[in-house]
Design a protein that fits this description.
Layout: E1 2-7, E2 17-21, H1 31-41, E3 49-52, H2 59-66, E4 71-76, H3 79-92, E5 97-101, H4 104-110, E6 116-121, H5 130-140, E7 141-151, H6 157-160, E8 165-173, E9 176-183
Parallel strand pairs: 3-4, 3-6, 4-5, 6-7
Antiparallel strand pairs: 1-2, 7-9, 8-9
């Protein structure tokens, strides 16, 4: 399955590598984008509760756990991705990770209301349910929680406000558009 790897860039597992499978639609968040995201969030996520319902390689969730997150839910619909996530979890001794094979929307529906500090939404670029995922993410976020949205286009306030979101930060790096969203229009 493996065609490459991505490295964790910060925290206790800095420089540890995660396998990246050669699977359709799988494109790990680039190092530069992850570095910027965790500059936005802060380097220390001690005590945070995070969800990565479209985990793929798990780079975002492992990065959060490496920086002290108390719990991270990692999910992916691919059994190959889930197997790789379990191997990486075991290798690193990442007890705070909960890994499941599931559709991202189902995971968002299962998360308790107001339980998450950050939700990482990084589905395949051709994903048809971004708006529903954003709606479901809002329900599981704590009042000051944030959503990271990674897509191949910019989501501006005119798209986000009707969904109850405000764009707080945005970065374009190659074809990646990284957004950090806050609830409230």
């Amino acid at each position: 399955m493996s065609s490459g790897e991505v490295r964790i860039i910060g925290g206790q597992w800095k420089r540890s590598k995660l396998p990246v499978g050669n699977l359709p639609g799988l494109r790990p968040t680039p190092d530069r984008v992850r570095e910027t995201l965790f500059n936005w969030l802060g380097q220390d996520l001690t005590g945070w509760h995070c969800a990565d319902p479209y985990a793929g390689s798990g780079a975002l969730g492992f990065e959060a756990a490496s920086r002290g997150a108390a719990s991270v839910v990692l999910a992916d619909a691919s059994s190959d991705c889930v197997a790789a996530l379990h191997k990486a979890k075991d290798r690193l001794g990442a007890a705070q990770l909960r890994i499941q094979r599931s559709d991202g929307l189902a995971v968002l529906r299962q998360l308790p209301v107001a339980s998450q500090d950050v939700v990482f939404l990084d589905p395949p670029y051709d994903y048809p349910h971004h708006e529903l995922a954003l709606k479901l993410a809002q329900q599981c976020l704590k009042p000051e929680g944030l959503v990271y949205l990674e897509t191949d286009k910019t989501w501006r306030d005119e798209l986000l406000h009707p969904l109850g979101w405000t764009l707080w930060r945005h970065l374009k790096a190659g074809s990646v558009h990284a957004h950090l969203l806050r609830a409230g229009a």
